[in-house]
Amino acid sequence: MVFLTENLHFVLFSLLAQGHMIPMIDIARILAHRGVVVTIFTTPKNASRFNSVLSRAVSSGLQIRLLQLHFPAKEAGLPEGCENFDMVTSLDMVKKMFRTIITLQQSAEELFEALTPKPSCIISDFCIPWTAQLAEKYHIPRISFHGFSCFCLHCLHQLHISEILENITSESEYFTIPDIPDEIQVTKEQLPGAVTFNSKDFGELVRAAECC
């Protein structure tokens, strides 16, 4: 059943990673089934991965559309066409991906401004902090999407406040996550890419966006 929700328009921004994009596409379909207009911002390579799924959704009457942002991979020092985290092969490439995502703000805002109907809400991956500024500028709510469980988020919080990672130089050295009831040991290479990115500036941007 399609519910009539006149003029509501949700704009979705997903991190360029399959583990984030797949649930975001599911969210888009759920919203569209309730009569909401949904626009998904992504890049050409990532759009091609979901064209068939979304084409079927649109054919069934759902109002979902993709807007493609140019991803300057070559300019960022990445291989041409490298637009998803499943295409990177080193921590250095992970860092370049995150830095390049930050640079997409201006082009995204230009497209966002021209959207019709006027956007009602942003659902954004927490790793895209500039969407908080976009929501503030257009006076609409921003819902932060986390692909992690609550327990994982708590562990990441403990890593942040303890600053334990600053003293660990080896990617394969096991260490204990501090201040949780059980002893859980991990290595830096097992942690999510956003954690091992090791950029205080980026981390502060993410935390500031989460507080908006």
TrEMBL record:
PANTHER family named among the record's database cross-references: GLYCOSYLTRANSFERASE (PTHR48047:SF166)
Signal peptide as annotated in the record: 1-19
Similarity comment: family membership: Belongs to the UDP-glycosyltransferase family.
Gene Ontology molecular function: UDP-glucosyltransferase activity
Protein name: UDP-glycosyltransferases domain-containing protein
Organism the protein comes from: Vigna angularis var. angularis
Superkingdom of source: Eukaryota
Key words of the record: Glycosyltransferase, Signal, Transferase
